[in-house]
Amino acid sequence: MTDPQRRLGHVVLRVRSLAVSVPFYTQVLGLREVARLDGPERDIVGGELAFLSFGGNHHDLALLESPQTKAADPQCAGLVHAAFCIGNHIEALRAFHAHLQRLGVALHHARDHEVSQSLYLRDPDGLMVEVYVDGDPALWAARPEAVATVRPLRVDWLG
Description:
Elements: E1 11-15, H1 18-28, E2 32-37, H2 42-45, E3 49-53, E4 61-65, E5 81-87, H3 90-103, E6 109-112, E7 116-122, E8 128-134, H4 137-142, E9 151-152
Parallel strand pairs: 1-4, 5-8
Antiparallel strand pairs: 2-3, 3-4, 6-7, 6-9, 7-8
């Protein structure tokens, strides 16, 4: 049984530097910094926290600064990637691809998942970030197994 009140509320990522990571998530992905926990409370959570939002939620992402940590290691257990939906039409993905090119942000790979089309890039700490547009919801409603589709997405036609 599904409950429409249940959803993923936010994600907290451990980063080495807020000074580097906050600009990445605000300038590249379009989040807005809404708050910062940098007083004595930071000892409770283990470091300074920046809270970021797309505007429809109090925060969608929090970044916990931990300067001593190593870069993300794809060989370790943990988060594989964080995915950010930017719309439901390929034109939004085309515009985001152009935005990445203007900023000089390298594209890691692109995928057609049938239910969505995605661009993947790495954040300053090496974490994989997926930026995607949703396809027609009727697609996965009729064929839930379509979510397991992974095909290359040609980006030459995005530019």
